Amino acid sequence: MAKNKKKSKHISDILTFVIAAILVAVVVFGIVVMIRQNSPTESEQPKEARNINTASDTLKTEEDLKDEDKVAESSNDSKDRAEAQARNEEEDKKTVAQTESGLKVAKPNINYIAQEGDFIVVGGDVSNINETGGKCTIVFSQGSRAESVTTDTLPNPSYVSCEAGRIEKSKLSAGEWKVKIQYKSNYAEGESEAQNYTIQ
Question: Which domain holds residue 84?
Answer without folding.
Answer: 75-102
